Every structure is written in structure tokens, then in C-alpha cells.
Amino acid sequence: MRASLYALAFAGLVATASAASAVDIAVLTPYQSSVATNQMIKVFEDKARAAGWNATVVDTRGDMGQLASRIEDVTAAKVGAIVLVSVDPKQIQDQVSAAAAAGIPVVTIDGATAPGVALNVTSDNFELGTKLSDFLFDKLGHKGNIVKFYYSAHPGVHQRELALDAALKKNPDIKVIAEHYMVVPGPIDDARKTTEDLLKSQGDQIDAVWAAWDEPAIGAELAIEADKPDSKIIIAGIDGNPQAVELIKSCSHIKGTVSQDFDAMAGLAADGLTKILAGQKPEKAELYAPAKLITPETLGVTCP
Amino acid sequence: MTLLRRYGTLLALALIIAVFAVASPGAFGSMANLVNITQQMSLLAIVAIGATLVMVVGEFDLSVSAVVSFAGIAAVSLFGAGFSIASVFALVLVTALAMGTVSGLLVARFAVPSFIATLAFGTIIGGLTFWISDGATLFSGIPPAFRDLGRGALFGLPVPTLWLIGTAAIVWLLLDATEFGRRLYAIGGNREAARLVGLPVRRDMVIAFALSAGLAALAGLLLAARLGSAHPTGGGGYLLSAYAAVFLGMTAFREGEPSVPGTLVGAAIIAVVSNGLTILGVPSFLQDLMTGAIILAAVLVRQFGRAGD
């Protein structure tokens, strides 16, 4: 007990000492285990180090109540700024407003605009969903059956789903024959199991898999590669996840991913925060990072 | 040594608070933050108090987190359909009591192990919650007066803290000062003996499960009010934390028995550790390591005290 308490006190003193020499930035997210969220946090941490800030990351593993409590904690600790990653600030509006009222700037990455948020940096998720749907539907010749992997709880991912709905209206010969709400954390394994089941029940009817982000696409690929490696099913997702890009390169069933520039998002957020901490306003309350489609062709690969 | 044996867990809580207060006197040690901790622990403690009732009879209710999520989603959906705050509270709580009754019947009447019965029924409730919400976070239609039930302050105390004080007082009285409470402890102590002396074992167990679900639903309603939104998996974090609070509490005050004061101490330890480590700027992976270590240390303090017997 005594040793634990000494260790605890030491950790506290170290944290307090380091806090005295640099601006404290609290980086909070409920989804750090997501590859994309993790990447944004890592890049932001690098930018923070370069700027001489002391960034601390807190992950609440999908728990919004905990996230609200932890925002209250860092507000009480009077940090220099709060950075929220991959979360809609409206889900914790009271805490965001309280932080803003306490004079603590709140910046969101891959979030949304809301009262109290000084800057949100994101991709245009509706555009991402439209690019994914258009790519997949073109590949199918605007006719066929698709499986949809989605997650409406994340505001950005929900926008992609709305884009799919809009694209489906324009393509009446594309049918969604199965849809699955993803389990988060653990989307790859969840998609793998679901795809295995779907291959058994409707394997001959599935022409493509529409994945709201790359991790479900990877799960679907693992299942198809194991159970029906010769099938012509096409998979596409969003994010430009490095594992998905490698699978595209190796001519797997994943034929495309709409890449979000997470490095650019984290960089824009760090630049914006630098301005805010210097007492200036960012150019806009919401900034979009560019997106591009990655396919075997754009990677210079010729697949059979 | 006697003091350590009797109040070891409570002393551990006091020590943890003291260490954090020394490390961060301005932020952690401020009265505003200490009051805020009571708010942060309130919903977890309400769920844990419900779990305590079921653990008193020697069972587990693994559906509590699903009921927390369900209550929030059901409430916001009902607001969207034009229901008043009072009717939403009544409908959600009655539905949760009915859900708990089903769990209780499965365990007490049909002898299904509570782990399996409540895990299965919790999964059903989770499915129902996703069906109602379509998997989305629900925001719209929440009346401002409902939000006030989970935030703000009255008499200098946060409203969720007041809910916790009321809930803890009622359940504490129920367990310690009524015949029903004594029957629950008798059932938990030796179910067969309780049955042979003519106690209504099945009925009381069903009531314990119903109350557990009712309190989980109350926490779910307050969580939706606090956040101003309802998430279909919003209660997911409460299951393990609630049982950690009950188990920590079992090392306090009474000899290995679940109790309301013990559970409150357990919930307070969990909340103080999370709050203190966040304020000190400890990253979350280190927080996990230290939270586990601190909980183990708190229990060991008590065990060292016992070793002196």
C-alpha cells in the first residue's frame, strides 16, 4: 500500500512539475482503440511536443458518462486547452459549455461544431460517403446486391450512411440485402463473424460490401478470404487505414478506400490551437481536410 | 490494528484522498472538486446499490448496464412522442421493474443460474434498445426541465448527488431497518434454511431483482438528463464498475456482506481515483494500471488488518 501510494504521489508530483513548465492540453476521446482515432491522436501528440505543449490523452472506451466526468476533471485542473477526438460535443454539451465558460478553449478533431467549440477539424463525411457509394456502384455497373456495415452512433459515420441512402435513391437497381450495426470496440472481429454468417446464408447473392469505415471492410475481407476466396464480391470502405491500403495493394477483395487525411486534420487542429492560445481566432469555426479515393490503379497495381 | 481491521477500506479511501489533495491541492483539494466527485460517482453508486440488493441474496444481475442504456433511449424516444416528464419517468421505471421481475422469476422460479439468466435477458434488452434507437444517439425533444433533473445544484449540492443521497437512504433503511431487508440477508446467508423456516424466498428474490433493474433505470434516466442525450450503449461502463464497488464495499463495515454504506465507499474509491488521476494528468493506460493497483491495495489494507486477529 505504502509503495503504491509513494508511486502515486511520485506520478502526481512529476505531472505537477511538468505542468509548471508547459501548457497542459487534455486530449479526450471515447474511441482511442479505433485505428483512425489513434492515428489522429498520435499525430496531434507529435505536433503538441513540437509546440512545447504537455498533452495528456484520456480514453473512456465508449463511455460518454465517463467522458463527461473526465472533461469536468480537466476543467477543474484548469488545463490550457481541451481537444476532443472523434466525438460529437453535443453529446457532452454541458461539460463543453462549462469548459468554455471557464476560459478553456475546446477544439474538436473529427467531431462537430457546437456551442463552446472554438474549432472543429474534420472531413466532409457526407462527401466521403458519396465517394464510397459512387465508386462501389460504378464497379457494380449500377446493379447488384450489397451488404451494409454501419454505425449510426458516431455523427460523422452516420453522415456517410445518409450519403448511402441518397445514392441508393439514385440507383434503384442496387439493393441492400443485409445490414449490420457494428460492435465498437472490436469492429474487425464483429464484421468477420457477421460476414461468415452472411456468406453461409446469402453468399451467392452478395455482390459487394459497403463498409462505413475500413475496419469492418477488413473484417469482411478476412471472412471472404477464408470461406470464399474465389468469389467476386467487392469491398470498399473509408479512412485509408494502412491495413486496408495494404490489402488493396495485394489485390484482395477490398477494391477501394476513401482516404481521410488524418495527419492533415491533426495538423490543422494543432495550427488552429496555436492561434487560439495566442489570443487569435481561427479562420473558420470548421475546417475540412481533403479526401481522396485509393484503388489498385492509384497505387500502381494491376490486379487480375 | 483493530481500527485497521474494522475500517481499513474507509481508511484507504481517506488515504487516497489525502495523497491526491497533497499532489494537487488547488484542483483536486478544492471544495468544488470534492463536491463534483459526489456528482460523478452518483450514477455509478445508484446502479451499484441496486446490484447490492441482488448480491445480498447471493445472486448477480448482469443486465444492469443494458437497463441503464434502455432507460435513456426509451425516455428520449417517449419525449419525441410527446409524453410528459412524469409519464416518461413512470413508464420507464415500471418497464424496468417488469424487466427485473422477469429476471427474478427466471432465477427464483425456474432456477436458471443468475449469470446466465441476466446475461441472456440483458442481451434481449440491448437488442430492444438498438431497435428503438436504430443504433443512433438520440438528442432531440428532451425538455429542459428533464435535463435539470440530472444537472445543476440545490442547497449547494449537485442534483445527481441529491438523487444518490435519497436512493442510498431509502435502500439502506430497507435493508437494515425492515423485516424485508433482514429476510434478504437471511436468504443470502442460507437460502435453504430461509425456505425451511417459511420465508417467502422466491417472492423476495424477485423483488430484489425488480428493484435492481428499477435503480439501473433511474440511473439511465439521470444519465440521459446529465448528458442531454441517450446513447444505445451508454450504460456499458457501469456493469464492471458497479460490481467492483460492491466487492470493495464488502471489505468495509460488515464481515464480507454487501451493504449500502460499503457500496458507497467502493463507488467513492473508484470515482476519487479516476478524478484524481485525470487531474494529475496521468494518461489513461497508466490510470488503468494504477486504478487496479489502488483497488487491490485498498482490499489488502483490510486483509492485513484481519491477519492481526
TrEMBL record, chain A:
Signal peptide annotation: 1-22
Membrane-traversing stretches: none
Residue span, Periplasmic binding protein domain: 25-281
InterPro entries per record: Peripla_BP_I, SBP_2_dom
Subcellular compartments: Cell envelope
Pfam families: Peripla_BP_4 (PF13407)
Record-level Gene Ontology MF annotations: carbohydrate binding
Keywords from the UniProt entry: Signal
GO cellular component: cell envelope
SUPFAM superfamilies for the chain: Periplasmic binding protein-like I (SSF53822)
UniProt record similarity statement: Belongs to the bacterial solute-binding protein 2 family.
Protein name in UniProt: Ribose transport system substrate-binding protein
TrEMBL record, chain B:
Gene Ontology CC terms: plasma membrane
Alphabetized Pfam families for the sequence: BPD_transp_2
Domain of life, per lineage: Bacteria
Keyword Cell membrane attached: yes
Subcellular location: Cell membrane
Keywords: Cell inner membrane, Cell membrane, Membrane, Transmembrane, Transmembrane helix, Transport
Chief location: membrane
Record-linked InterPro entries: ABC_transp_permease (IPR001851)
Topological type in the membrane: Multi-pass membrane protein
Stretches that traverse the bilayer: 39-57, 115-133, 153-175, 205-224, 236-253, 260-279
Coiled-coil blocks: none
Keyword Transport: yes
MF GO annotations: transmembrane transporter activity
Protein name, as recorded: Ribose transport system permease protein
Lineage: Bacteria, Pseudomonadati, Pseudomonadota, Alphaproteobacteria, Hyphomicrobiales
